[in-house]
């Protein structure tokens, strides 16, 4: 699944990526002017008109003895969509693992397990308040889709230069983070205590 997504974003199959990108952009641009119910209804109606027309066309060919009248979508209808107990259990475990991981991260940030991490998240939300004043959620979603289909391709084409600049920025952020930790009283002590507790637990296990 991840490989298919990567191929889609890297435009390995230009036709498929173009169709998906165009479909997403047209749908999102429609949502700028119409309600989501109206857009969903029109998309579903358009899809049904296409499939019904193709099905009727095959029946007409059968009537004039130029075809067998078989359902053109039979190959998709024959696909078995049922899940075995093992697949259901594995999917449930993945969902539960994702929920637990998300809850752990939220607890880490909002209950201030690490002061620096919580401050960084607060800064991020503070910046988002200004972003939200300029763009609405749908506009950000459109920009996100454009970024998904352009940034990976640009990165692959200019990977060396981008990695160099990212390395410089990462080093600068590391220095800033170290300075912040040094200036906030007790942060270093808390980090040392947490490391000591973790080490003790590891030895005990």
From TrEMBL:
Signal peptide: none annotated. InterPro entries: Reticulon (IPR003388), RTN1-4 (IPR046964). Its main location: endoplasmic reticulum. Pfam families: Reticulon. It is a multi-pass membrane protein. Residues 5-205 form the Reticulon domain. It is found in: Endoplasmic reticulum membrane. Keywords: Endoplasmic reticulum, Membrane, Transmembrane, Transmembrane helix. It comes from the Eukaryota. The chain crosses the membrane at residues 20-49, 123-155. This is Reticulon. It comes from Saguinus oedipus. The gene is RTN2_1.
């Amino acid at each position: 699944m991840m490989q298919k997504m990567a191929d889609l974003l890297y435009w390995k199959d230009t036709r498929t990526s173009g169709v998906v990108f165009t479909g997403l952009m047209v749908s999102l641009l429609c949502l700028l002017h119409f309600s989501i119910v109206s857009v969903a209804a029109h998309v579903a109606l358009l899809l049904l008109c296409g499939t019904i027309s193709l099905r009727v066309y095959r029946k007409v060919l059968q009537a004039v003895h130029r075809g067998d009248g078989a359902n053109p979508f039979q190959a998709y209808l024959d696909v078995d969509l049922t899940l075995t107990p093992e697949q259901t259990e594995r999917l449930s475990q993945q969902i539960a693992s994702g929920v637990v991981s998300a809850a752990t991260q939220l607890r880490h940030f909002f209950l201030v397990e690490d002061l620096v991490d919580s401050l960084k998240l607060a800064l991020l939300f503070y910046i988002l308040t200004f972003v939200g004043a300029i763009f609405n959620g749908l506009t950000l979603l459109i920009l996100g889709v454009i970024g998904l289909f352009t940034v990976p391709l640009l990165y692959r084409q200019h990977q060396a230069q981008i990695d160099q600049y990212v390395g410089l920025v990462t080093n600068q952020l590391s220095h800033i983070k170290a300075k912040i930790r040094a200036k906030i009283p007790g942060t270093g002590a808390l980090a040392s205590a947490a490391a000591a507790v973790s080490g003790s637990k590891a030895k005990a296990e």
